[in-house]
Amino acid sequence: MKRRHLLAGTGLAAITVVFGAGCSLVPVIPKRPTPGAEDAQGWIRHDADGRYTLWVPCTEMGQQISTALQGLAAAELGVEPQAVQLRLPATGDIARVRATVGSASVQDFALPLAQACATLREALLANGVAAAGNTTLRSQPLPARALRSFQALARADASGSRPAAPPAGQLHAIVTGQPLFAGDTRLPGMLYGRVLRAPVSAELDSRPSAMDEATARADPACIAVVRSPLLVQMNSLGVGIVARSPAALERIEAALAVQWQVDGDGFEAEDIAARIDIDRYLARGALRHRPRSDAMPEGGTWSVDLRMDIPLAAHAPIEPRSATAAWRRSKAQQNAPVLRVWAGTQDLFYVRDVLARNFSLSAEQIEVQACRVGGGFGGRTLCTVELEAAVLAQAVGAPVKVHWSRAQEFAQGFQRPPSSHRVRARVHQGREQSRVTHWWHAFASSHILFTPAAMPPWMQSLADFAGDSGVARGSQLAYAVPQQRTEFTAQRLPVHTGPWRGLGAGPNTLVVESAMDECARHAGADPLAWRLAHTSDARLAAAFERVAREAHWKSRPTSDATTLRGRGIAGGIYKGVSYAAAVADVAVNRATGQVRVTAIWCAHDCGLVLQPDGVRAQTEGNLVWCLGMVLHEELPVAASRVAATTFADYPLPRMGDVPPLHVYLIDSSASPTGAGETAMVAGAGAIANALRDATGHRFTRFPVRSGDVLQALKG
Predict the structure, then answer these.
(1) Radius of gyration over every alpha carbon of the chain, rounded to an integer in angstroms
(2) Cβ–Cβ contacts within 10 Å for residue 215, how many?
(3) Structural domain ending residue among the three candidates 109, 144, 175
(4) Region 279-285 average pLDDT
(5) Cβ(672)–Cβ(618) under 8 Å?
C-alpha cells in the first residue's frame, strides 16, 4: 500500500508506523491542550511558612507574563504579590500545558489560574489558614464575574486608577547576574559540546564524508568525536565534538577539518524569489487556497494594482539557544536511565516527547527544566539543541552543555518566510462618498505552522490540502468591502521557514494597509476618514479614533528645503480578537535618501489588561519589529545557505533608529486577549504610508534602503 493512500485512509493522527527504535514515519506532533481550573490547581501551592509558590505555566521570555500571573494570583488570594514566589517548572512539576505561542498566555492561563487561586483561598479559610493546598476543593470553578481579581481589574479599568504593579519577575536576579538562562547552567563535571554540520541548508542532504579525527583527538582538551544517527536535523547529519572548555571547541573543530558530501540542487537568492513570484501563479491560476472567494469582475481596469515583495527575515534573539543534558541511573526504577535537560524552550513538553521518541524512553524517565528565554518569537518551538546535548552527554557519560554560536542560530533556525503579493482594488467614485467595491489580494509565501524544519515533504503535501493558516493570518481585509477575494499558496523553499512574531500578520497587513492607503489617495480622501468610512467594527474604529486624537492627526508635519516629511496611519485586527491602530511620522533627507522615523503613536485594545506596563512594553517591541520590517531587515542567502553569520550581516534597528513610542491602552471590559503580537498589524503599514506621504512614491519592495529612496526621488 502506498504511503499517501495509507494516510488518506486513516488520517495523520492515527499513524504510528515505527521502523525501529527512535525512528518513526511521522515526526512528533505537539500536543497543546487548553488548560482548565483543575490543571491550574497544580500551578499554585500554599507552603508551610504561609507563602505561596506559583509554577509559571508559560515560558518567560521578557514579556513579563510571570509578573502578570503573580499579580493576578496575589489579588485572588488576598495577599501581597511578594508573598507569591515565582518558579519556572520542570515537566515533572506540573501537568502538560500548551506551548507559549500565539500571544495566548493571558487569554488561556489567566482565568484558570484565578479560579484555582479562588478555590485554594476558600479551602484554606474552611480548613484553617495553615492548611495545605490539597484540602477539599470546590467542585465547580467560579465564573470570571465572581472572581475577586477580575472584579478588581474591571474596577481599575473603569476608574482609570490602578495600584502599583509588583516589580518585574526575576528583576533582581537579572540585574545581579544570577543564573536564569539555559546558558547559565553549571553542573559538576560538566563538559562542552558542539555539533558540526555542512555549510548548506538542512533541506539539502548532507553528511560528513571525511575528517581528521586523529589530529582532533590529539588535542588534550578533546574528550570525544561523536557520530550518531540521532545527530540529524531534517536532512543534515552532523558530527559532534565534546571538549573540556568552550574555548577549545573552535580549535578542535578546525583540527577535525570535516569534509562534507552534499546532494541535491544548490540555490541562490533569486531561486527563492522565483519560487514565490505571485504573478507566475496568477498567470497559471495556480493559487490553491481561498479564505474568501467572491466573484471578481473580468476585464476593465483596476483603480489600484500593486505588486509588493517582502524578504526572508530572522528571529534574531539576543540569546542564541542553549541546553545542558545529564544522564543518570534511577534506583527507584530498577536502574533505568533517566535524562534531565535544562533548556530555554517555548514548549517543555514537546521537547520531552521528542527526546522520549529518540531515546526510546518513557515520559517519566525524562525531565526538562524550564529556563528563562532571551528572545523566542516563535523560534524556540522545536527540539534542536536539546537533542544535540542529550546525544553528546550519553556518548561521554557526563553532563554536556551545547550553546549555539550566532552563526548557528542564523543557519540552523527557521526564518520568517518571504512573500510576494498582488493587490487589486476597484474604487467607485460617488458624488458624496467614494467606496472600495472590489478587493482582490493574492499572494505566495512559504510555510509557517507547517514548518519544513519539522515536516518532511510528503507530510507537508498532505497538510497543504487544509492550507497553512499561519501564512494566511492577517491577509483578509478588516474593512467592509462588498466583494472580496483572498487567495494564496505556500511553497516549500530550500531555506526553512516557520513561526515568526505574528506569523503572516506582519507582512500581510503591511501589504493590505499600503493598498488601502492607495485607495484613499485614488479617491482623494483623508486616509483616516477613508478607513473609518469602511470600518464596521466598533473596536477597530475606536482604536483609529484614539490614535488620531493622541497624535493630533490633522497636524501634518511639513517639508522644507532639506527634509521631506510625511505622516501615515494603519490598523487592523489580530486573530479576530485584538485591535491596534498606529500613526507614524517620517523625515527623509533629500540629499542622502536616509529615512528616519521621528515618532509612532499606537492605540491598543487587547481586552481586560492584567499588567499595563507589560502590555506597553510588548507593544513597543512590536513597533520596533515593524520598523525593522520596513527599513532594515533582510536575511541574505547565497551558496545554498543563509549567508548571515553575525549581526553585521543582518541589520537591525539600533537605539538611534528608534523614535519616541507613544502607546495608549484602550480600557475594555472584554475578555483578555493577546498583546505580544497585536501591534504588528498596525506599525509597519503606518511607517510605509508615512514614507509614501513624504516622498510621493509607493515603495513596493522591502526593506526600503536610502538608495531606493534616492532613486525614487530622482525618478
Answers:
(1) 27
(2) 14
(3) 175
(4) 96
(5) no
Same domain as 681, residue 569: yes
424: in domain? yes
**Does residue 409 sit within a domain?**
no
175, 167 contact by CB (below 8 A): no
505 and 680 Cβ atoms separated by less than 8 Å:
yes
Quickly list DSSP for 232-257: EETTEE-EEEEESSHHHHHHHHHHH-
**Phi then psi dihedrals of residue 701, to 5 deg:** -120, 130
Looking at this protein, which amino acid is placed at residue 44?
I
Residue 489, classed as helix, strand or coil, is strand
> Given a cut of 70, is residue 30 above it in pLDDT?
yes
Domain termination residue (choose one: 175, 203, 218): 175
Cβ-Cβ contacts under 8 Å for 395 (sequence gap 6 or more): 224, 226, 228, 240, 242
Our CA dihedral for 170, 175, 181, 186, rounded to 10 degrees, sits at -110
> In DSSP terms, which residues pair with 322 in a beta bridge?
403
The rounded distance, in Å, linking the Cα atoms of 163 and 680 is 29
The pLDDT tens digits of the residues spanning 168-190 come to 667 788 888 888 999 999 999 99
Residues 77 and 187 both lie in one domain: no
> If 0-12 CB within 10 Å is exposed, 13-18 middle and 19+ buried, where does residue 541 land?
middle
Query: Which of the four pLDDT bands, split at 50, 70 and 90, describes residue 337?
Result: confident
SS3 288: coil
Indicate whether 227 and 331 sit together in one domain.
yes
**Strand bridging mode 595-605 / 661-665:** parallel
Chain segment 87-126, per-residue pLDDT in tens: 999 999 999 999 999 999 999 999 999 999 999 999 999 8
Is-contact 259 198, C-beta < 8 A?
A: no
pTM of the entire predicted model:
0.93
Average per-residue pLDDT in the chain? 92
Angle formed by the axes of helices 348-359 and 385-396, to 10°?
Answer: 40
Count up the domains in the chain and report the number.
3
Residue 480 sits in the same domain as residue 587? yes
The verdict on 146 and 235 lying in the same domain is no
Where residue 582 falls among pLDDT bands split at 50, 70, 90? very high
Do 531 and 675 have their domain in common? yes
* Pair (611, 673) in one structural domain: yes
In a domain, 5, yes or no: no
526-575 pLDDT per residue, tens:
999 999 999 999 999 999 999 999 999 999 999 999 999 999 999 999 99
> Both 135 and 61 in a single domain?
yes
Query: pLDDT tens across 613-651, in order?
Result: 999 999 999 999 999 999 999 999 999 999 999 999 999
Query: CA 179, 180, 183, 188 torsion: positive or negative?
Result: positive
Cis check: omega of the bond before 703, within 30 degrees of 0: yes
Q: Which domain holds residue 379?
A: 182-264+321-403
Evaluate whether residue 425 is within a structural domain: yes
CATH of the domain at 186: 3.30.365.10
